[in-house]
Amino acid sequence: MDRLKSRLLLLSIAFLMVFCGGSPPAEDTSGETEDQVTLIFAGAPSGRELEVTVEALRRFMTANPDIRVYMRPTPDFYPERLKLFQDLLADGFPDIDVYQIDVVWTSAMAEHAVDLKQYVSETDLQQHFATIVDNNTVDGKLVGLPWFTDAPALFYRSDLLEKYGFEGPPTSWDELELMASRIQAGERREGNLGFWGYVWQGLAYEGLTCNALEWQASAGGGNFLDAEGKPSLRNSKAQQAFNRAANWVGRISPPAVIEWAEEESLLSWRRGDAAFMRNWSYAYADSKRSPIAQKFDVTKMPQGEGGTAAVLGGWQLMVSKYSRHPDAAARLIRFLASEEEQKRRAIEISHSPTLKSLYEDPEVLEAVPFFRDFDQTLLYAVRRPSSRAATKYGEVSEAYWSAVQRVLRGGNSAIELRQGERRIAEIMGN
Questions:
Q1: Cα separation of 229 and 232, whole Å?
Q2: Which is nearest to 296 in space by CA: 395, 199, 219?
Q3: Each residue of 43-61: pLDDT tens digit?
Q4: What is the largest CA-CA distance in the chain?
Q5: For residue range 196-229, what is the model confidence (pLDDT) as tens digits?
C-alpha cells in the first residue's frame, strides 16, 4: 500500500477535489460524522463535462444531506487511468467508492466490483439499451450501471457541401474521399491554406483502436480478435482499410492527425478548418458553441463493403467492493444514472443517454436533433473484443493501435500487421 499511497499523493497534485467549495482532510478521507458518510468518486470529466458533473454531485448532496462526495478527476491519458485503477483495485484500496469505467473495462474490473443487481431492479435495467447492460454483465454480475453511452458520427459542413454542389453528405468512404478532396482544393484556392478535408483521431491510444476497428469492420475485415480470441489484423480487407487510411494522411487529412486525439480534431473542426470530422456525440454541443454553429450537421459513419461501422463507447459507474459504504455509493450512482440526470447531460453536453425513452423526448431532440435516429446506431454499434480479451484487453488494444499507427506513418502494412498479430497472439497465449 505504501507504493499506492505515494502514487496517489503524486497524482493528487493534479486532481481537483470537489465538495461544495470545501477541501478534504490531508490523510483521512473518511471524515464522516455519526450521521454523515463520505464518498470518493474517481471520475474522468474535464471542461464543460466537469462543470455538469460537479453540478450533479451538488444536487445529490442537497437531496442526501447524510452523504458528502469528493471527486477525484483522474489522469487524462487513457492507459495511465486504467493502470491507476487496476493498481488501486488489485491492492483492495478502500478509499475510492465509485469508479467511472470505460465500456471496455467491465471484464477487467469485474472481480473488484459490487454486484449492482442487488441495488437495481430488473425493470429499471430494462429501460437501458440491452446491449450495454449485456456488456456490463460479467458471469451474471452487473459490474457497472450505464451512465452515458456513445458511438461516433460523421460531422460535416453543410454550407460547404452546398457551396461545392453536393446534394447531401457522403454515404461511403469513396464519396467521403471525393467530397473531401474537392472541398479542400476549393477552399485552398480561396486562400485558406490550412484547410483539410477530413479530421479524425490517429494518436497511438484507445481512440485509434476505435477508428481502426471502424475502418476494418466497414471494409468487411471483421474484428481484431476473432471469436476464438485469435488476432485478425492482416486479412486482406483489413489491410486494404488501413492502407486507405494511411493514404489520407497528408492528402485529405493533416500530417499531424497521427498525433491527434478527440480534442485536437475538434479544435481544427471548430475553427472551421475541416470539411468532415469523425467524433463522438459530445462534440455536437461543443460545436454549437463555435463559429461554425449554424454551418454543420451530423450523419452516420460512411460505409464500405462490410457496411457502416461505429464503435460502441460510453462510461459506466462501478461501486468498488472495497468501499466502506457500498449502500451510499449505490445511492449515488442510481442518482447520476437516473432519467432526470441523463436528460440534463443530453441537453447540456449532448451525452448520449443509455435510457431508450430519452431518444423520443421532445426537449432532448430539440437540443440534439441527430439523436432522433442515433438510437439505431447504438443498437448495432460494433463492440471492441474486451470480453474475449478480459484482463488482457489493455495490452491487446495497445498492440493493435501500435501496429495500425505504424502503417499510418508509412510502414509496410503486411510487415507491421504481421508483427501486430504476433504480439497479440503472444499476449493471448495462442
A1: 9
A2: 199
A3: 878 889 999 999 999 999 9
A4: 71
A5: 999 999 999 999 999 999 999 999 999 999 999 9
